[in-house]
Amino acid sequence: MAKRRNADVESDEADKKRVTKEGFRKALSIFRFVRPYRVQYIIGFVFLILSAGTTMSFGLLIGQITSVIQGKSAYTLNQVTLFFVGVLVAQAIFSFFRIYFFSQVSERAMADVRRATYSKIITLPIPFFEQRRVGELTSRISADVSQLQDVLTLTVAELFRQVATLVIGTAIIFYVSWKLTLFMLGTFPVIIIAAIFFGKFIRKLSKRAQDYLAEANVVVEETLQSVNIVKAFTNERLEIHRYGSALQRVVSTALHAAKYRGVFVSFIIFALFGGIIGVVWYGGSLVLHNEMPFSDLLTFIVYTTFIGGSVAGMGDLYAQLQKTVGSSERILEILGEASEVNADDELPLFVPVQGNIQFDDIKFSYPARPDIPVLKGVSLDVAAGRKIALVGQSGAGKSTLVQLLMRYYNLSGGRISIDGRDLNTFNITELRKNIAVVPQEVILFGGTIMENIQYGRLGASEADVREAARKANALNFIESFPDGFKTIVGERGVKLSGGQRQRIAIARAILKDPAILVLDEATSSLDAESEQLVQSALDELMQNRTTIIIAHRLATIRKVDRIYVLREGQIAESGTHDELALLEDGVYANLVRLQFEPIS
Ligand SMILES: Nc1ncnc2c1ncn2[C@@H]1O[C@H](COP(=O)(O)OP(=O)(O)OP(=O)(O)O)[C@@H](O)[C@H]1O
């Protein structure tokens, strides 16, 4: 038993190592987003080297000034000071260009990462969205990309500068006094061992804090998105509390990490300054014994502080890089998912279908709940131009059938075909262009009414949009707004009524003009006048189209060619309204009775 556990622990360890290595490899591959801007990157780097070089020369200049003061230099104080000022000006100019070019690279590259991530997310299949929360996905695009931003340019540049400072600084002090350098380097191993030991530990803690922060943000996202539900249930306090405790977890984890970071940083500072005191002591005795001029000692001390600073900074940079590995892993994970459509591909040639639909022994379970069969062998045919209705109790599988027609999910069994062609042989864009959906709950995007109708066919002319709106019985109310088609709707605009929104959705569908139409009937009923306007708009829309109606109110489907009654994932009955209504003890007959019988 103990042996087994040991083996487990070992394989865990191996996993960790592999993941970190893999992580670094992946993090590096995110650099492909920097590649298009490599010219600016290289220019930025040149300025970085120049500005690092000028900073490095300060130590030498301080040594020079000391020699001048001691009267041991060939130059005058003014000459050296003037040179000093010149170096300072150069340093300022170099720094400006360094920041300017690096920002160009980082801003542009990050916009590219965001664009790539967004176009990947939006083209992913529906099941992907069922496994993630919206908050989590938005934080990929905002927080994780921001984390990358600094690292791709500044941190890498900074790391380079620190390493350069370390190498050049050490070379200079070695040149100034090798004895003192060896003495100084003696203090290094302690710092390095501490950095490795603590660094690992602190990283783990910071990552946990970051995860908790993402969780807290999910609370904000979700509640703000559905703020009216929160208010309707007067659950503001509950949500404040939920957010508060999520934040509390962030704070306590971050503080826990801060404690160790504090210990780490103060230890490093202590060790560094301890080293400097040692150097001053040893260097002072070398000066006293005339083995080294005083100006060299000053130069030496200045470079030692540079080197110390870069070593201390490197720990932080390393932690920063570690965080980035996590972020880039998460982004690359999304970028690596398989899209259902490729946003960069050319749109396939649109081939209109006639609209013969065939569902053949469809079996289906949702990927999120694979053990629960939702459809258990459903077969139905709709000839082109015919209208059918799906009825059945809530949860019977009506919407599921339509989602499968849209190919939002893969079938577990059976076959769907359009005009005799298997659905899977269609390009997904081509398929969906042939289907219009008028959904139960119409969501309008922020923008004008014109844009919202054009969503049905991008680039449609204003005249076409007008005509579609007229056919959808929407022209009157649109023109009653002072701004007409330019009226802004959506979150920040005019709120439209349910019936008005439905007519906009109908206009969208008319503009799209597909052979197949799916009507997901609104469950909430409209007032009589609105109902009549919507109904006549729908009649117009349904003309000459294969139509599948997901019916909730049976009154609206009397005229359809065939009604299918779904029960527990199977077709229980099918026929016209008149046939089904007469079936004694039939499911449909019972539903009709329930809906139309006056409540006594
Ligand atoms: N995305 C999903 N993941 C997992 N299960 C789902 C999903 N969507 C629906 N279901 C389940 O599948 C079953 C059929 O749902 P469906 O939405 O097709 O029913 P419906 O007949 O359209 O109901 P309603 O009339 O209420 O819209 C239900 O039991 C539902 O819980």
TrEMBL record:
GO cellular component: a single term: plasma membrane
Pfam family, one: ABC_tran
Alphabetized InterPro entries for the sequence: AAA+_ATPase (IPR003593), ABC1_TM_dom (IPR011527), ABC1_TM_sf (IPR036640), ABC_transporter-like_ATP-bd (IPR003439), ABC_transporter-like_CS (IPR017871), P-loop_NTPase (IPR027417), Type_1_exporter (IPR039421)
Localization, UniProt: Cell membrane
PROSITE patterns with a match to the protein in the record: ABC_TM1F, ABC_TRANSPORTER_1, ABC_TRANSPORTER_2
Transmembrane regions listed in the UniProt entry: 41-62, 82-101, 159-176, 182-202, 262-282, 297-319
GO biological process: oligopeptide export from mitochondrion
Segments forming domain ABC transporter: 357-593
Keyword field: ATP-binding, Membrane, Nucleotide-binding, Transmembrane, Transmembrane helix
Signal peptide location: none
Single GO MF annotation: ATP binding
Residue span(s) of domain ABC transmembrane type-1: 42-323
Membrane-related topology note: Multi-pass membrane protein
Major localization listed first in the record, in broad terms: membrane
Family stated for the protein in its record: Belongs to the ABC transporter superfamily. ABCB family. Multidrug resistance exporter (TC 3.A.1.201) subfamily.
Name of the protein in question: ATP-binding cassette domain-containing protein
Organism of derivation: Spirosoma rhododendri
